[in-house]
Automatic annotation (TrEMBL):
<dbReference type="InterPro" id="IPR018378">
    <property type="entry name" value="C-type_lectin_CS"/>
</dbReference>
<protein>
    <recommendedName>
        <fullName>C-type lectin domain-containing protein</fullName>
    </recommendedName>
</protein>
<dbReference type="Pfam" id="PF00059">
    <property type="entry name" value="Lectin_C"/>
</dbReference>
<dbReference type="InterPro" id="IPR016186">
    <property type="entry name" value="C-type_lectin-like/link_sf"/>
</dbReference>
<keyword id="KW-1015">Disulfide bond</keyword>
<feature type="domain" description="C-type lectin">
    <location>
        <begin position="1"/>
        <end position="72"/>
    </location>
</feature>
<dbReference type="InterPro" id="IPR016187">
    <property type="entry name" value="CTDL_fold"/>
</dbReference>
<dbReference type="InterPro" id="IPR001304">
    <property type="entry name" value="C-type_lectin-like"/>
</dbReference>
Length: 86
C-alpha cells in the first residue's frame, strides 16, 4: 500500500495560512519535507492539509480529499525519554 497512495499526516494551516501545525499537539512543524513548489496553499491563499505523496515528499491538499491516514501514539516502552515532535 505504501508507495501507491497518498497519506494524511495530520498537519494543516487551517488556523493561520502562514503557519503549519500538527493537528494533535497543535505544535508548529519542526521538520519539513515539502515537495518542489509546495505548499501550494501559500500560493492559492486557501487553507490546506498535509499529505505525504508516493515519493515521500509533502504536499498541501484540499482537506476534503479522502486518503488513508497515519496516526500518532505514545510508546509505552517504559523508557524515560522526552517526546520528539517532527
Amino acid at each position: 500500500m505504501l508507495g501507491q497512495e497518498k497519506f494524511w499526516l495530520g498537519g494543516n494551516n487551517l488556523a493561520d495560512l502562514s503557519t503549519w501545525n500538527w493537528l494533535g499537539p497543535g505544535m508548529p512543524f519542526g521538520y519539513r519535507k515539502w515537495a518542489k513548489d509546495e505548499p501550494k496553499s501559500a500560493l492559492t491563499g486557501q487553507p490546506g492539509c498535509l499529505v505525504m505523496g508516493e515519493d515521500d515528499d509533502w504536499y498541501s491538499e484540499d482537506c476534503n480529499n479522502e486518503y488513508f491516514f497515519v496516526c500518532e501514539t505514545k510508546c509505552n516502552s517504559g523508557a524515560t525519554v522526552e517526546p520528539i515532535f517532527i
